[in-house]
Amino acid sequence: MTKMNKEMQKCFDKMSDKQKIRMFYELTKYMHESMEYGEDEDMKKYVVICYAVHEKEIASHDAFDNEDDAYAFLEKDAQNTYEEEMNNASEEDKDSIDFTISDDGSAYLSSYDGEYEWTWEVIEAD
Q1: CB neighbour list of residue 118: distance below 8 Å, 6 or more residues apart
Q2: Which candidate in 12, 16, 35, 116 could, as Cys together with 111 as Cys, close a disulfide (CB 3.0–4.6 Å)?
Q3: Could you report the per-residue pLDDT of 12-50, keeping only the tens digit for each?
């Protein structure tokens, strides 16, 4: 794997979220089309994307070599964000926090006042 150098990082930082999503799509497509001998379990990658809906941007993206690690990370990241929201909410507002982790590799969190909203998703790149 090629490590991202400073020049690559600068280019990545200048990209809009739409451009980053397109880049991930194109990389996934390229990887899939480049497979000469069928599927290779060792070549699959999983990306966990956290999207901050309230800021309309990708809050984080993390890549994993296996599905279990990606799902575990999603659950931990979403749970940590939920706990932060619970700590910042008053007792009466805690019941208004909407938090769901689904078995399909996705999660949703909305703060008690609806001001903050996040979604998480595991994307398989094969």
Answers
A1: 50, 51, 52, 53, 59, 78, 81, 107, 108, 109, 110
A2: 116
A3: 778 788 777 777 777 776 666 666 555 555 668 899 999
